[in-house]
Amino acid sequence: MPESGHTWRKAFKGEPIEAEHVRLWTARRVGHSDAPLIANELYVALLGSGAPVIEMTLSTAGTRIRITAHGEDPLSVLYSHGPGWQIVNGLCHLAGLTTDECGLWAQLGTSR
């Protein structure tokens, strides 16, 4: 039996005030207590890179949740492995750079 899931996408302005909206948007869609913090850290990493628009994606499948923050330009190592990266890695099961190197993703399970 295939695992069913949902996907939500929303573009946020690349402005600090939007970080709170990212956390609330995430909390309203997925029930994992760490998801809003992880989404915030991914958003802030792209915000620091100067992205004017950051597209956030939440995808669920079974007990897995994948959070992605995506910008327009490739990220430098500073933004993809800065201080927030330690927080993300401590809270999720897997994390990485998108294949086009313009975004970051993290995956976690709902049982954590």
Features:
globular, alpha+beta
Question: Which structural class do you get from the secondary structure elements?
Answer: alpha+beta
User: What is the helix content?
Assistant: 25-40%
Strand residue percentage? 25-35%
Order of helices and strands: EHHEEHHEE
Shape: globular
> What's the gyration radius in Å?
13 Å
Number of strands: 5
What strand order characterises the main sheet?
1-2-3-5-4
The major β-sheet equals:
5 strands, antiparallel
Distance between the termini: 23 Å
Number of helices: 4
Detailed description of the structure:
This protein has four helices and five strands; from the N terminus they run E-H-H-E-E-H-H-E-E. It has 112 residues and is α+β, with helices and mostly antiparallel strands. The protein has a five-stranded antiparallel sheet, with helices on one face. A hairpin with a 2-residue loop joins strand 2 and strand 3 (64-70). Helix 2 (35-48) packs antiparallel against helix 4 (83-91).
